Amino acid sequence: MNKISLKGKVLVAEPFLDDPNFRRTAVVICDHSKEEGTVGFILNRPIEMRIDEVVEDFPEFEAEVYFGGPVKTDTIHYLHRVGNLLEGSTKIVEGVYWGGDFDKLKFLIEQELVKPDDIQFFVGYSGWADGQLEDELNLKTWLIEDMFSNYLFKTDPFALWSKILIHKGDNYSVIAQMPDTALLN
Q1: pLDDT the model gives residue 179
Q2: Count of domains for the chain
Q3: C-alpha–C-alpha distance, residues 159 and 9, integer Å
Q4: How confident is the model at residue 5 (pLDDT cuts 50, 70, 90)?
Q5: Do the Cβ atoms of 43 and 129 come closer than 8 Å?
Q6: 1 in any annotated domain
């Protein structure tokens, strides 16, 4: 069993994973503990809605919302780079923070101290019970890579999965360039 923490890592779906929830996804891990299990967010599934369209009484804000995962899809979560301004934030890796005081976040947005490119919102999350993710890792369902803030703030979400695999090199860089529909041939 894997005893190291995966917090701050990216799980990259192995190239031929068929699960529609996670096919060709990159999932940042925000919490990983034996007692609580694992929580993460899919970084490359925008849902073509803005946060002010999803959350009532939210300031006008042109930030896209992403599908974070199939667990509790009636919840909103956020990753950002303004941990120095937002109390209650949890540092995930350098330049990436999770959560924080929601009312303060709305205030910071209204004051234009937080811009749309400083934050990503997620509907739902990806979660694994204690031991479940370790079982999937043993089955080689996921590749584990380091998380970089550029994955969240500077990379086209539709290209993220491929970019991570290309960066990994070897056979992965070839597989990353295969069209998703290649399996249908």
Answers
A1: 67
A2: 1
A3: 18
A4: confident
A5: no
A6: no
